[in-house]
Amino acid sequence: MEQKVKIETIATKPIDENCTVIKNEETKEAIVVDPGSDIENILEAIKDFKVVAILATHGHYDHVGQVATLKEIYNAPFYINKEDEFLLKDEILPGFSLYLNAKTPPKPDFYLKDEDKLNIAGIDIEVIHTPGHTPGGCCFYIKSQNTLIAGDTLFKGGVGRTDLPGGSWEKLASSLKKIFSTFPKDTKVICGHYQDTTLEHELKFNPFLRGLW
After folding, report:
1. Residue 2: band (very low, low, confident or very high) from pLDDT cuts 50, 70, 90
2. pTM for the full model?
3. Residue of 94, 103, 97 whose CA lies nearest to 70
4. Which helix (H) or strand (E) holds 77?
5. Sign of dihedral through CA atoms 178, 173, 211, 186?
């Protein structure tokens, strides 16, 4: 039986990037997803937990800028899709890492693949490869909570930009169709920035989805 799970989101400053902490409240273990910046608030959220894994939805520095810090403290393995490894060595936008007070991320310990079924800290997580915003972008589905951690693939009322290196609107459109055809419409979506949403809400109101079906 899956353990008692709590999902907490930290809106990290300065650009409201959502770092998500998935907690097993019985074992006091935690998985940190997309620790981009604002390390003090992240550490406060996990102070009573042992971090056992660090997951990245993609390799942009606003999502991985504090992976190195967490790895130094907890020695937890770092997971990302291999197609985004090139981004770990390139801040893309000049001065971006300085603005975020980011550290160069370490080499990944594990590479995520489409349809991977992870069990970390007693929590089942399904990996969905969703290229478009970046080549190796992934979403993480926690079935027990009916929650999708979408990174920058899908936003409330928007989608991820595709004009940065490795971006592709055609691939993003395909990834969006994949998400909406795979998961229940009442799935909660934790976006990479700003507010949470649901798949049902986005189907009704997101202008970027019109014409995809």
Report:
1. low
2. 0.96
3. 103
4. none
5. positive
